[in-house]
Amino acid sequence: MRFAVFIMWLLHWLPLPILARIGEGIGSLLYLLLSRRRHICLTNLRLCFPQMPESERKEITRRHFQVYVRSVLERGILWWSSESRLRKLIHVSYAMPMAEMVSSPTIFMCPHFVSLDVAGVAVMLESSLCSIYTTQRNKSFDKALRKGRSRFRPVKLFSRAEGVKPIIRAMKENLPFFMLPDMDFGAKDAEFVPFFGVPAATLTALPRIAAATHAKVIPVIASIRPGYDGWDVKFDHAWSDYPHADIVSSTRQMNAYIETEILKMPAEYFWTHRRFKTRPEGEASVYRASKGSFQDTQH
């Protein structure tokens, strides 16, 4: 893995259009080779978009592999490029000035689009933050990732096992919380909330933390600009009257917002994650290969 990190460091010197095309080429190859991940991606798309033609779902899957691998290589730019280069490549739009956003408790709600690391850098170019961090198995990659994510401002990273108390303390110190709330971490602290009409184990941490800290929730969406011209990062308007008294309704609002953003760029959402891994009691896994319509075949 040290060698892989070294290669990422070498590649970050390349112009973005060249680096991005390399990533897309590798992604096209992995689409053919990684049948299990391809099956997960197609299964998610079949569940979420049952009326979509299969050919379109396969094209979204192919494109997802391309942009996902591209995003991994582009982390080298985020971790080692100069601040001036990053400011040229990251095109930010604010619903309100950053200083106003972080002047009181704030949660930046950032869904799992492939360019989410770009959103994190966009925050750190202007402000410190706190976030949840999963330690990487490989020490070399873990070190590079941690250093890359905290090189512009001090960052407080907490383990998911520590719970929400350290996050709440950090937010009381006026650190915005950069939150990625839309993955399946099991039934604990989650409710089955519709995601494109499919019950999905969804963490309720966003409304719970917002209620405990009286924080405003500001969605942050990162996307790839056309023409290999960098990335867009949108800081949306803070949600009004959030959270609601009903925690499930509040969590559903989050999923509905993410659905709307996915429809704008479906290939850039993290479909290779088993979003429907945890099922309601009595329901079988949706990811088991079968001979029916959910069989992953290539043509």
UniProtKB/TrEMBL annotation:
The keyword Kinase does not apply. Keywords: Acyltransferase, Cell inner membrane, Cell membrane, Membrane, Transferase. The keyword Cytoplasm does not apply. One of its GO terms (molecular function) is acyltransferase activity. Its main location: membrane. It is found in: Cell inner membrane. Pfam families: Lip_A_acyltrans. PANTHER family: LIPID A BIOSYNTHESIS LAUROYL ACYLTRANSFERASE, LIPID A BIOSYNTHESIS LAUROYLTRANSFERASE. This is Lipid A biosynthesis acyltransferase. It comes from Undibacterium flavidum.
